[in-house]
Amino acid sequence: MLKPYEDKLKLIKSEVEKLGLDIVGALEVSLQALNERKIENLKNIEVSEKKFLVKSNEIDNLIITTLALYTPEAKDLRSMVAFLKITNEIVRTAANTKDFAKMFKKSYSDDLDTNTILEYTIPLLKSALLSTKTAISIINEQDSSKVEEKYQKVIVEESKTDDLYLMIEKNILKLITKKLDLSKEYFDLLSSLRRLEKIADRSVSIASLLQFAKLGGDIVQS
């Protein structure tokens, strides 16, 4: 394979990974804020949808240019196709990450049952973070068995977010019946937590695309 092509492929992988790790970093800051009960620190989440979109378009253009200049082998062609789709998933994940931080901070207050909220929100955020972090780590994974292992780990964490969201939804609805005057705040919180569930969904899509890139088969997205 031509070295210039190899360099392009490495650059594409590196740039996609950087975008993904930026989201991982934002989710880690969010988790720390919740663990320390310093919800105001969610204002420090620096996720610009515009910047992610611009960078995503730059990567997509690089992929298209590379495909036009070279004739990649089947495995590398799969990677190019996968990365074209992954950039879109990352942009959507970035939007959900920003929305979670903004909406949670705005609706959270001591008037609410904060203990119940955080009891479920923290593990929900942990699972969303772990699923995203694991999915991004597949980019540089060469061992096919490890690729499959990490893919299954993402599936497990995404399933946890579904279960946790249903649990907190049930509990918040109970809290609303006790304090109807706070129903808007509770519903807004619930909406913010829905973003975490969506983040985990996107991680499954990313992991599926990377599994396709590494192992072949069919593309299966959530």
From TrEMBL:
Extract the SUPFAM superfamilies matched here.
PhoU-like
InterPro entries, alphabetized: PhoU, PhoU-like_sf, PhoU_dom
| Gene Ontology terms describing biological process | intracellular phosphate ion homeostasis; negative regulation of phosphate metabolic process
Coiled-coil ranges from the UniProt annotation: none
Q: Where is the PhoU domain?
A: 18-102, 132-208
Q: Which family does it belong to?
A: Belongs to the PhoU family.
Q: What is this protein called?
A: PhoU family transcriptional regulator
Gene giving rise to this polypeptide: phoU
